[in-house]
Amino acid sequence: MEAILDFIGTHKEVFYFVILSIFVGVEVIGKVPTVLHTPLMSGANAIHGVVIVGAIIVMLDTEMSNIPSLALGFLAVVLGTLNVVGGFVVTDRMLEMFKKKK
Amino acid sequence: MIQNILEISYLIASVTFIMGLRMMSNPKTARKGNLVAAAGMAIAIAGTIFLYENGSGYTSREGLKMALIFAAILVGTVIGWMTAKKVQMTKMPELVSMFNGMGGACAALIGLMEFHHNVGNTGPQMAVVLGMIIGSVSFSGSIVAFLKLNGTMNKPVRLPSYNIINTFIMIAVLAYGAFMIFSGTDSSVLLYLLFALALFYGVMFVIPIGGADMPVVISLLNSFTGLAAAFGGFLYDNKVMLTGGILVGSAGTLLTIVMCKAMNRPLSNVIFGAFGASGATAVAGSSVQGSIKDINVNDAAVLMNYSKKVIIVPGYGLAVAQAQHVIHELETLLEERGVEVKYAIHPVAGRMPGHMNVLLAESNVDYGKLVEMEEINPEFATTDVVLVVGANDVVNPAAKNDPSSPIYGMPILDVENATHILVNKRSMNAGYAGIENELFYNPKTSMVFGDAKDVLTKLVSELKAM
Asked: Which residue has better confidence, B465 or B105?
């Protein structure tokens, strides 16, 4: 318990940050018309690919001698990149179709 | 100095994510919004690769390591780019699910690797374990969702009293996770067991849910992955992972709720199974009485040619048959002959909200002709012909008048108010929800059996001959 409270205390900025971000997320999405729901879901999908930053950090912090960790890190970076690149390209393809119209 | 530059690049990336999402809420700026967010992502990734420094001096950039990182990014980019470019429009939902699963797996792997660095460090270890659990659930859940949409696994699999079993597994996963955090154990075996259990829970979570509900599930899993990314941000005190993750987490949750609203079902119903056992018996119980009326393509063409107003109701069948271009041709031909043509878009037509819009936009159908359900429903009464192409559950009157039906309460398109109803289907098989549709037995309804593309192509050539 003590540890958890300590953690919250030392990271209080992060908690503020998280709560404000939740509101921003809801506000920003709240205005999206139904027609754009699929592209939006896909775009949001690409954005959580930011988890790749974590995968890169893991790799940078791993010693070269730790082969299993490097292998896992490699795999994580591949998967993260798939999420980012695939996500953005698919979204772009969907939205390309809307663009011609107006 | 360098660290400040990195922080600024993260700040820029965070702002682009917010702006990108905002721009995506308007059809005019949507595409640019996506590119803005993508540019921000590139900045964040490049910044991390070249500038990141761990305070305790672990960080190293040996040539081989950098080569590995770039190789991984290259592999991911090539595969991701190719798949995303090649895939057909009908396969979009599956693909989003698949990419979502990749992100979840990435988060899970980070958890697996970071666990040993944080043993005995309760706060960070919470972020590690929770990120790993959520990432794993999101990964295995997305793969099941992918297989379901794919048709590989199209029947919901339900163990007896699966809700109790699932709740039990969930509690077990959480209790196990708490044990891993607080006991200070550093056992790899226990860690991988937890990983396996979380993966198993993901499968069990999605497997009982019917295919028709997959969009909601994907959206939910999408916000899960966002959450997993945010836990990563927590762990590394990395602001861009936090913003990106939380934004997607909250946006995804909101989107999930919006989708549920469109189907008039609370989220708990989707997860804990309104389509469950009671639904199955109802199907068997209420067998629909009446006879089916067939119509040939020629008569259908005549009927449409001499009407004033035609409303087209597209469904997943249109997407499967890739008939979006032919239907646009049909629409143009009818318009040339002075027939008013509109498309009625049910919020959950297809396999994702907005699926039909994307599909029809591909074939250059005028944006203004796509009318949403609430707006078009009063218009059916003044419509001569409704052409239902490959849609089923979204026009099933059982949603209104059969309380025992599993889709009871879902708002539907009131097509039965029109003078004539033409239904194009491949066969008399039930729709995605697996239930009978009494609309087909309505005396006003005529069925045109066949693949949507074939039938529509014939309709077009008949019309041209007239």
From this structure: B105
- pTM of this structure: 0.79
The pLDDT score that the predictor gives to residue B156 is 66
Instruction: Please report the number of interchain residue pairs, chain A to chain B, with beta-carbon separation below 8 angstroms.
Output: 373
| SS3 at position B212 | helix
Pick B361's closest partner by Cβ from A42, A92, A98.
Answer: A98
Between A86 and B353, the higher pLDDT residue: A86
Instruction: Return the domain boundaries, chain A.
Output: 1-31, 33-102
Residues whose CB is less than 8 angstroms from the CB of residue B412 and which lie 6 or more positions away in sequence, other chains included: B346, B394, B395, B396, B397, B399, B400
* Helix pair angle (A12-30, B2-23), 10° resolution: 30
**CB-CB under 8 Å, B246 with A86:** no
CB contact under 8 A, B233 and A38: no
The backbone torsions φ and ψ at residue B186, rounded to the nearest 5 degrees and listed phi first, read -125, 25
Greater model confidence, B85 or B27? B85
Chain A residue nearest residue B96, CA to CA: A42
Q: What does the alpha-carbon distance between residue B301 and residue B304 come to, in Å, rounded to a whole number?
A: 5
pLDDT of residue B66: 93
Sorting pLDDT into bands at 50, 70 and 90, what band is B276? Answer: very low
Residue with tokens 């039938």: B455
Q: Is B290 exposed, middle or buried (0-12, 13-18, 19+ CB in 10 A)?
A: exposed
The active-site residue, picked from B237, B294, B393, B454, is B393
Which residue from B72, B239, B352 is facing A77, i.e. has the nearest CB?
Answer: B72
Three-state DSSP class for B431?
A: coil
Q: Could you give the ipTM of this predicted complex?
A: 0.91
Closest by CA to B202, choosing from B145, B147, B157, B163, is B145
- At residue B154, the pLDDT reads 65
Find the residue in A nearest to B63 (Cα): A64
What sign has the CA pseudo-torsion B436, B440, B441, B447?
A: negative
CA atoms of A96 and B46, how far apart (whole Å): 26
Residue B36 pLDDT exceeds 90: yes
* A chain contacts of residue B48, beta-carbon cutoff 8 Å: 53, 56-57, 60
Residue B271 neighbours by CB under 8 Å, 6+ apart: B205, B209
Residue B393 annotated to the active site: yes
- Which positions in chain B touch A45 (Cβ < 8 Å)? 96, 99-100, 103, 222, 225, 248
B312-343: buried (b, 16+ CB within 10 Å) or exposed (e) per residue? bbbbbbbbbbbbbbbbbbbbebbeeeebbbbb
